[in-house]
Design brief:
The longest helix has 18 residues, at about 240-255. The N and C termini lie far apart (about 50 Å). The protein contains 13 helices and 14 strands. The protein folds into three domains: about 15-200, no CATH class; about 200-275, Orthogonal Bundle (Arc Repressor Mutant, subunit A); about 285-345, no CATH class. The protein has helices spanning about 5, 20-25, 35-40, 80-95, 105-110, 120-135, 180-185, 200-215, 225-230, 240-255, 295-305, 310-320, 330-345; strands at about 30-35, 55-60, 60-65, 100-105, 135-140, 140-145, 145, 150-155, 155-165, 170-175, 190, 220-225, 260-265, 270-275. It is about 40% helix and about 20% strand.
Length: about 350
C-alpha cells in the first residue's frame, strides 16, 4: 500500500455525528436489514447503470432479479430500504401499529444514512427510489413463512409527498413489498453497525452483510473465495475478485474499518471473518448454534419426517439457518426437516 492509503481511512467521514434518527432510541431505531436480502445477492455492486438480468441459485432456492430502464437497484439504494425497515421495527418494538406504507422526511433519511443533505443528495434519493420500484424479483425464498413465486418489486410504490420550489423533496411515502414486510412481521431482521453507511465500496458493504448474517455472534466464520464471490453477486473474474478481496484485507489490517468483523485470508482460497467483540460473542457450547447436540433419536425422527433426504445435509442447512439456540434442539431440528420435506417433497 502507498503511504497515502495508510493515512487515509477507507471509511467515509461521519457527516452527521448525532442524527435524530439514532437519538430517539439507539436500540430500537438502529439500522436493520432483512435477512433474505442479506443472505442473497439482490442488489447490484455496480456504481454505473446495471441492466443485466441476474439469477442466483443455492440448493433449491433461487432468485432472479430483472432491471428496469433505470437499471438494477444498487447496494447504496438499499440504504432507503434499511431506513424503512428500521422505522417499522422500531414501531413493532414499541408495540405501535405498523403498516407497509412508511412516510418520512427526506432530510432525516439523508442524515440517518450518512449522505450529503445538498441537492445532489436529494437527487440521489429520487433516483434510488426509481430503481427500487423498477427492479423486479422472482424467487421461491421464503419470508415470514410464505413462499412467493410472483414477480414483485423491492418496494411496491413511492410518492414524493411534498417538494420545495427549488426541487428538493420534503416528505416521501414508500410502500414496502409483501416479501419484505412479511420478513419484518416475523422479525427476520438483524441490526447493522451504524458504520455500514460509512463504507465506501459496495463490495465492502456486501461482505459486511454476509459476515453479519453468517458469523453473527460466533467467534469466526470461514468461507471459500468462490462461494463468497457467488454470495456477493460479483460478476468479475475470480482473479479480479481475489484482487479486490486482497485490497480489502490489506486495508482492514491497516485501519480495522470493516464493522464488527476482521477479514483475513486463511489460505489462498479461504476467507476468514473474526468477531471483533462489538457483536456479542458466543463463548459457551450452550449458546453456540454450531455446538448444539442432536441425539440419535433426533436424527432417527428427522429421517422419518424427511424420507429420501440426506439428514446430514439437512443438518448443515438447519445450522446455517438458525440464529440462536432453541430450548429443545431435537424438536427444533425435526421441525425444520418436516417443513423442508413439506415444501420440497422427496429428494
Amino acid at each position: 500500500m502507498t503511504a497515502l492509503s495508510k493515512e487515509r481511512s477507507p471509511l467515509l467521514p461521519d457527516r452527521h455525528p448525532t442524527p435524530d434518527f439514532f437519538v430517539c432510541d439507539i436500540f430500537d431505531a438502529a439500522p436493520k436489514g432483512d435477512m433474505a436480502s442479506m443472505e442473497h445477492p439482490i442488489f447490484s455492486l455496480s456504481t454505473k447503470p446495471d441492466h443485466h438480468i441476474r439469477r442466483y441459485e443455492h440448493g433449491d432456492n433461487f432468485v432472479e432479479i430483472k432491471p428496469s430502464a433505470d437499471g438494477l437497484a444498487t447496494v447504496h439504494d438499499r440504504d432507503i430500504l434499511i431506513y424503512c425497515i428500521s422505522q417499522v421495527m422500531a414501531a413493532i418494538n414499541d408495540e405501535r401499529e405498523v403498516s407497509q406504507t412508511i412516510r418520512f422526511k427526506a432530510h432525516e433519511l439523508l442524515k440517518a444514512t450518512n449522505r450529503m443533505t445538498n441537492g445532489r443528495g436529494y437527487e440521489g434519493v429520487k433516483a434510488a427510489l426509481e430503481r427500487l420500484a423498477g427492479t423486479r424479483i422472482n424467487t421461491n425464498i421464503i419470508t415470514g413463512g410464505k413462499e412467493i413465486f410472483n414477480n414483485f418489486g423491492l418496494i411496491d410504490r413511492f410518492e414524493i409527498v411534498r417538494e420545495t420550489r427549488d426541487g428538493r423533496m420534503q416528505e416521501v411515502e414508500v410502500k414496502l413489498s409483501d416479501w419484505v414486510f412479511n420478513a419484518l412481521r416475523h422479525n427476520e431482521v438483524l441490526t447493522l453497525s451504524r458504520n455500514y453507511f460509512r463504507l465506501r465500496k459496495p463490495i465492502e458493504r456486501r461482505i459486511y452483510e454476509l459476515a453479519r448474517k453468517h458469523c453473527g455472534r460466533q467467534p469466526e466464520w470461514r468461507i471459500s473465495l468462490s462461494l463468497l464471490q457467488k454470495k456477493c453477486g460479483a460478476v468479475s473474474s475470480q482473479r479480479e475478485f481475489r484482487r479486490l478481496m486482497a485490497n480489502i484485507v490489506a486495508e482492514d489490517q491497516a485501519h480495522a474499518h470493516i464493522p464488527d468483523y476482521a477479514v483475513t485470508f486463511e489460505s489462498e482460497d479461504m476467507v476468514r471473518f473474526r468477531n471483533r467483540g462489538t457483536v456479542q460473542r458466543i463463548t459457551s457450547p450452550e449458546t453456540d448454534t454450531h455446538a448444539m447436540h442432536i441425539s440419535a433419536d433426533g436424527y432417527e425422527e428427522a429421517r422419518l419426517v424427511a424420507p429420501g433426504w440426506d439428514i446430514y445435509v439437512l443438518e448443515q442447512e438447519w445450522r446455517s439457518w438458525i440464529t440462536e439456540p432453541p430450548r429443545n434442539v431435537d424438536a427444533a431440528f425435526v421441525g425444520f426437516c418436516r417443513k423442508w420435506y413439506e415444501r420440497r417433497g422427496s429428494a
